[in-house]
Write a structure and sequence with these properties.
With about 290 residues, the protein is an alpha/beta fold. It has two domains: about 170 residues, 3-Layer(aba) Sandwich (Rossmann fold), CATH 3.40.50.720; about 80 residues, N-(1-d-carboxylethyl)-l-norvaline Dehydrogenase, domain 2 (Orthogonal Bundle). About 45% of the residues lie in helices and about 15% in strands. The protein is built from eleven helices and eight strands. Strands 3-2-1-4-5-6-7-8 form an eight-stranded mixed beta sheet, with helices on both faces. The longest helix is centred in the first third of the chain and has 20 residues. The radius of gyration is 20 Å and the shape is globular. The N and C termini lie far apart (about 55 Å). Bound molecules: nicotinamide-adenine-dinucleotide. The site of nicotinamide-adenine-dinucleotide has 22 residues, from α2 and α3.
């Protein structure tokens, strides 16, 4: 039988009261939106006034879409956008979501650490940079971890909680509960190239491309095999088209450096990227895409 205490903990997932987001682009705006809907106050900090205004526009557009679906919106003053990391002073959690550039992220994390309370949790939304490499330059690596959100954040159901060598277990527990509090499943993954999702997803995608190269089956039949045979919601080639062939190639090259030949990108992937066929965003990848 469940004890009353356990039941209470499970029934009342705690939302951080104040959340900071550095970088209010595609992912940062989505992360802000998710915590706002869960009842947190969210401060988005951008690099200049123009991008701060754009970030506000993105979050407000996402909130308007939620309202149209009948979701109750937070108070208007629950969201602030600015260019001042001083806004993070009271934050329980700050998520770094600036572009995927190691030097940029190191600078961003130093700015965040300089602004937050000692007990705040700091997270990076990096999709490929090692959490330990980022933690190496931090003063409080025990308060730092990866929170790998998926794109688009409102429609995604998963966040990878990526633990560095120094991340405190209590920080992992807290972050996991916060992820659950915004209605997403959390999986805890040790810091390793590609975490869990990209490594497995890219492995399947690369093998599907090799099968296409070898003439084993058509793109449609390879995808249908996984969709109908294994109940994947979408086959690996269609998924690659939607993610972007260039994005997948970049991840494969990185995984090849870490794990060797099993992640060597197939020539067909390189050729399509070189020809500018990047998938849905350019109208052609393994499939033809129209509006
Ligand atoms: N887009 C995806 O599919 C996806 C999925 C998972 C994780 N990620 C990761 O999320 C992070 C952000 O990606 P994105 O797609 O949202 O990028 P994006 O380019 O849409 O947004 C980045 C934002 O950061 C801002 N920015 C740049 N420098 C800044 C600075 N010094 N201080 C404050 N803000 C700054 C930019 O103005 C921009 O609004 C990256 O690490 C990326 O790898 C992306």
């Amino acid at each position: 039988m469940t004890s009353p205490v356990t039941a209470t903990v499970r029934d009342t997932p705690s939302v951080p009261v104040v959340v900071g987001v550095l970088g209010g682009g595609r992912m940062g705006a989505g992360i802000a939106h998710a915590f706002l809907l869960a009842g947190a106050c969210v401060h988005v900090v951008e690099r200049d006034a123009e991008t701060a205004a754009q970030a506000r526009g993105r979050v407000e557009a996402a909130l308007a879409r939620s309202a149209a679906r009948g979701t109750r919106l937070p108070d208007a003053d629950a969201l602030t956008t600015s260019v001042d990391t001083g806004a993070f002073a009271e934050a329980d959690l700050v998520v770094e979501a600036v572009p995927e550039d190691r030097a940029l992220k190191l600078g961003a994390l130093a700015r965040i650490e300089g602004a937050v309370r000692d007990d705040a949790v700091v997270a990076s939304n990096t999709s490929s940079i090692s959490i330990d490499a980022l933690a190496g330059a931090m003063r409080r690596p025990q308060r730092f971890l990866g929170l790998h959100f998926f794109n688009p954040v409102p429609a995604s159901a998963l966040v990878e909680v990526v633990t560095g060598a120094d991340t405190a277990p209590e920080v992992v527990t807290r972050a996991t509960r916060w992820v659950e509090a915004i209605g997403k499943a959390a999986v805890v993954v040790r810091d390793a190239p590609g975490f869990a999702s990209s490594r497995l997803g890219v492995a399947l995608g690369l093998e599907a491309i090799r099968m296409l190269e070898e003439g084993v089956a058509s793109a449609q039949d390879i995808d249908t095999a996984m969709e109908r045979g294994y109940r994947h919601p979408m086959g690996p080639l269609r998924t690659t088209d939607i993610v972007g062939l260039d994005v997948r190639l970049g991840i494969a090259e990185e995984l090849e450096r870490a794990f060797g030949a099993r992640f060597t990108p197939p020539a067909l992937l390189r050729d399509l990227v070189a020809q500018g066929h990047l998938g849905r965003k350019t109208g052609r990848g393994f499939y033809e895409w129209s509006e």
